[in-house]
Specification:
single chain; mainly alpha
Amino acid sequence: MRRKATIALHWLTLVLLILLVAGGPIPVVAWAFTLSGLAMCLLAVAQGVMNGPGPKLEGALRRAHPWLSRAMYAALGVVAALTAWSQLGCTWSGPSLPNLYFYLMSASALHAIFHLWRHTALGDGALRRMTPTSMHKLL
């Protein structure tokens, strides 16, 4: 159950982030992003993150992996919380929501490239962890 929930939240949050980057903070999309992003973070806090460096990842990347993962969750949590804050009519003096969405999308792209590299160059099956089992034959 945890795996399915994490996978569903992972991809739902990405799709909602893409919609926010493309169309701005449309209220229903913004709230859906907030809920899915915070649910993903709460699931990770309550039950731990569902990832690991894999046996083939070595050296500095292996040591950095858990910290980079935590940074992604922290960034998601902050942007989701600020999206809710904005939807409640509150303001802050930091970057605008469109900029925050762009930054998070950029970090997500780097995250994806890293895991594509792991899956292809290292052959450690990294993509199988976060894809629905129906897609595993394609990977």
